[in-house]
TrEMBL record:
This is DUF2019 domain-containing protein. InterPro entries: ARM-type_fold.
Length: 125
């Protein structure tokens, strides 16, 4: 069983991840990003194991205005089959935005994978 983190810790990890990811887009440390991706997979596992708490955390994270966070959390919604309509709308908005850069492309890929496969898998690292 995955150790459950507090909502504050989870929000902090997602915020750090978003900052690091933006830095990577500009030539930053991709190894550090990979370490955060592993942390996020562990968080996702905890959401799978404790859906009620996972849904609570997702609801809180969906209040973010950070495109990177919203993009990641929307994919978690698809993988958990939770708030799917909201997730699709978020990903479409990111995909269609001219200001979202690489996040726009990631949202496009996520939507295509979701539509093609009828499910979304969070890769185990």
């Amino acid at each position: 069983m995955t150790k459950i983190k507090s909502i504050e810790e989870i929000i902090s990890i997602f915020s750090d991840f978003a900052e690091i990811k933006r830095d990577v887009f500009e030539g930053g440390d991709y190894k550090k990003l990979n370490r955060y991706e592993k942390k996020l997979v562990k968080i996702f596992k905890s959401f799978e194991e404790n859906e009620e708490y996972g849904y609570y955390c997702i609801d809180e994270l969906l209040n973010s205005h950070d495109i990177v966070i919203l993009n990641k959390v929307a994919t978690y919604c698809l993988a958990l089959n939770y708030r799917v309509d909201d997730a699709e709308n978020i990903l479409r908005n990111i995909r269609d935005s001219k200001e979202c850069g690489m996040s726009s492309l990631e949202a496009k890929w996520s939507l295509e994978s979701w539509k093609k496969n009828g499910k979304f898998v969070i890769y185990r690292i």
